[in-house]
Amino acid sequence: MLGLLGGFAVVGAVILVGYIAGRLVIGGPQAGFALNQVAFFVTNPALLFTVLADADLAAVFSEYVPIALISSVAIAGLYVLVSRFLFRRPAAETAIGAMASSYVNANNIGIPITVYALGDATLIAPVLLVQLLVLAPLYLTILDLTSSRKPSVRAILTQPFRNPMIIASLLGVAVAATGVRPPGPAWDSIALIGGAAVPMVLISFGMSLPGSRPLKPSPDRLQVLTATLFKTALMPVAAYLVAHHVFGLTGDRLLGAVVVSALPTAQNVFMFASRYARGIPLARDTVLLSSILAIPALIGVAALLA
Questions:
Q1: Which of 15, 75, 96, 39 is nearest to 283 (CA)?
Q2: Tell me, what CATH number does 95's domain have?
Q3: pLDDT digits (tens, 9 = 90+) for 29-66
Q4: β partners of residue 173
Q5: Domain containing 73: what range?
Q6: How many domains does the chain contain in total?
Q7: CA 208 – CA 20 distance, rounded (Å)
Q8: Is-contact 279 273, C-beta < 8 A?
Q9: d(C-alpha 129, C-alpha 106), whole Å
Q10: What's the predicted TM-score (pTM) here?
């Protein structure tokens, strides 16, 4: 339990620093946007490369991979259906909402939670792989195509190989599979740059909060509530059903699968929304609300399944 609270305390403290910096307008009014751009093109790719390059692929490719994929796709698909018939928003905003309702904070909160609360950081690696190698390319392709004026067949086919985060993820998996690592100084340089990714994303998120009022009357209000409900309540239920009734997991392995699914929406969703300037309030407010509600959600999961 202390591990859960400690992980959220660390993340909340860094977001608070970003909020104060935003209130003081440190770096100018566009500082948060600039940090997001640097995170998208530089620090996050470096972090993803080092995390996946060090992953034990034999242990990572377990039943947690299909559990994470099935539960994420099911919740995202349900959101798309609701959006299609209720919200009637453009494809880019719908993609951001689907991502906000099903894309967990596997890195910033997931790693400390699995280390300190569950005692096993490998539980989060399958979710990272599913999100980075399957879900992120899918969402980024949709955002690329819906944000460009005249997408061509060539653009559709080559998009995954032009995105820095996807390229870094594929290279990291290649290093993990072959064991061929960059020379020491090169590796240390990449790791140093990647070390700035998490605080940079959290600070930029905090800088976006001054002046924002979550759940204020707006066209995004119902979408934020829906995405938050899906992420906080429905996704853990979906993960439980898939893990227990399809894959037969029980005990600690079932607890691990459900805890990971109950993590809040990743700040990367906000980063993607900011990068493409689509659905920013939806992503920001869902990240904030799901992060607050994740604490009682995770405590409830632990109480029911531990």
A1: 96
A2: 1.20.1530.20
A3: 888 888 878 888 898 888 878 888 887 777 667 888 89
A4: none
A5: 2-207+217-305
A6: 1
A7: 10
A8: yes
A9: 10
A10: 0.75
